[in-house]
Amino acid sequence: MRYGNVLSVFVAMLAFAIATPVRAGTQETLDAYIAQQMEEGAIAGVGAAILVDGKVAWTKGYGHADIARGVPFTPDTMMNIGSISKTVTGVAMMRLVQEGKLSLDEDVDAHLPFKVRNPRFPDEKITLRQIATHTSGIADRWDVYKRAYHYGGDAPEALGTFLESYFVPGGANWSADNFVDAKPGTHREYSNIGAGLAGYIVERVSGEKLDAYTKRIVFEPLGMQHTGWFLADIDRARHSTLYVSQGGMTIPIPLYGLSTYPDGGVRTSVADLSRFFAMLLNGGAYEGVRVLDQKTVDEMLRFHYTKANKPDNVDLAEKNVGLFWQSKYNVTRVGHGGSDPGVMTDMLASLDGKIGVVVFSNTSLSGEDTKYYANIFKAVWEEAGRMRAERGAKAGDSR
Asked: Which domains does the chain have, with CATH numbers?
């Protein structure tokens, strides 16, 4: 999700070993390499999964979910996943679009008890498509947004209350600086609060809280048994401790909730998120369960920025987006990542969707130390490519 990645601490031994080189020409196995990066980066726990051709091909946990109690980090360990949560909010939004209950291009005010207007462009509507492509002009004013985090439990402030105070002139958190100085649709400004607003609109239109709605249409149908939004609704015994690092020490931090929970509040496991990811990569269905139609998924995942229609501050060689769907690594991979205190996560696929990787870490890193997490992701990604190449070679041999 949002602000800077922070660091963590010591790590432990791994589980099982596979004898596959991380990179051609080296003798290191994937497990040994991940262990090395965790130790050098002082990362407490890591979970990872590889998807090949829309199916989970490999998954594993490393290190600890709780160092003090010696609890291992496994593919079933739960933790909050930061901004990957926006993709869940996106699926909920697109389900309502599919059912004809929402339009991506209508004024969001049609579904709100208050108006959302950039005071510098009061006659310009703001749409869900703009929000989901981060071109709405809604900004995250940091001195306000940081107060959306509540340490020690779920946030007591309701989503609607926070948003109304932010968007209504005269509200406790209103300011013209809650918007960028650009006409809606013309400038890219990544907005967590905008995603919170999209989730609130889902609630208003569906008649259900986002957590209940996504449980009904996504989590339960896909068999995501270890997934939820609020600490009050999950098995805390399965939830990882979160860590930050300071001065080479691993410091556990309290779990926390968010007033703007649709932008980053999902708590899930690598195993569960892999099912969700596979559903998207398979055109909206997984293991016989359809969540979205193929046409709806295509609209959610297609790149929206074009030469004729792109924000004024975007280089298409470096960035493109779907609806709550992001490119990464200079538009060579797509999906979403997340970063929060004690959280570093990625859910990324190749552009053709043939390989996908999910990586969780319960330890946030900062500065140059983020390279250790990046190295782990790169190693898992390389293994995913090797696995698919091997599968392709075997298929060729069988013909």
From this structure: 30-398 (3.40.710.10)
